[in-house]
Amino acid sequence: MMKKQFMVIGLGRFGSSLTRTLIENGHEVLAVDKNEQLVQEMASIATHALQADCTDESVLRELGASNFSHAIVAIGDDLQASILTTLLLKDMKVPKVTAKARNEMHGNVLTKIGADNVIYPERDMGIRLGNQLSSDNLIDYIELSPEYNLAEILAPPAMNGLSLKDLNIRAKYGCTIMAIKTGQSINVSPNAEDAIHTGDILLIIGSYDDIRDLESDYGRP
Ligand code: ATP
């Protein structure tokens, strides 16, 4: 994996856990917050941790913001600071700016001023948990786009012994089984003859509705 350099602005619960994870994955992180105490807490974790107010353009220049290929603005409550920081980073031609939004309106503004990626952690975790709790078979899923998900589903007994051809999932439900996990082994490009067994884990791409229809037809595991 290529080592990347990130700048994380705002070291609340989100920014600090993001910083830890990037470091654990072998990347370099310049972690910045205007709150000195939070900076101290990150000092032994981040590559560099600095106390600064990022709504000041000259401060961002001093920090060398334009040298980073990716900056993450993890400021939540202070809308003005979040928006101004994002705007300055894009003005300074930082190639990729990801900004955290509290709500849709905040997110729309961030997109308009040039944020490359807007995230809504609380909203998305709520959706994710809601979907997981609503389904008996769903283990996890990743939203690929607003329409398509990659879901991990526990194969229900009603599928036991059936091949992908027998199930005919793509034609019936519009979903595609990308991989079948059996214990520790994984079949990443299953062909039509491959059979599914109770307890297998299926990796499926499809819309949330299509995956739910498939699950409800085959019942509980
Ligand atoms: P979380 O949910 O991640 O805990 P939050 O959404 O409640 O955070 P805030 O606490 O408002 O977000 O902001 C996160 C951090 O951003 C705070 O520690 C705050 O000090 C920092 N911050 C706010 N404005 C600036 C700024 N202008 N420059 C640098 N850091 C800032």
UniProtKB/TrEMBL annotation:
<dbReference type="Pfam" id="PF02080">
    <property type="entry name" value="TrkA_C"/>
</dbReference>
<dbReference type="Pfam" id="PF02254">
    <property type="entry name" value="TrkA_N"/>
</dbReference>
<dbReference type="InterPro" id="IPR006037">
    <property type="entry name" value="RCK_C"/>
</dbReference>
<dbReference type="InterPro" id="IPR050721">
    <property type="entry name" value="Trk_Ktr_HKT_K-transport"/>
</dbReference>
<dbReference type="GO" id="GO:0006813">
    <property type="term" value="P:potassium ion transport"/>
</dbReference>
<dbReference type="InterPro" id="IPR036291">
    <property type="entry name" value="NAD(P)-bd_dom_sf"/>
</dbReference>
<dbReference type="GO" id="GO:0008324">
    <property type="term" value="F:monoatomic cation transmembrane transporter activity"/>
</dbReference>
<dbReference type="InterPro" id="IPR003148">
    <property type="entry name" value="RCK_N"/>
</dbReference>
<feature type="domain" description="RCK C-terminal">
    <location>
        <begin position="136"/>
        <end position="220"/>
    </location>
</feature>
<protein>
    <submittedName>
        <fullName>TrkA family potassium uptake protein</fullName>
    </submittedName>
</protein>
<feature type="domain" description="RCK N-terminal">
    <location>
        <begin position="3"/>
        <end position="119"/>
    </location>
</feature>
<dbReference type="InterPro" id="IPR036721">
    <property type="entry name" value="RCK_C_sf"/>
</dbReference>
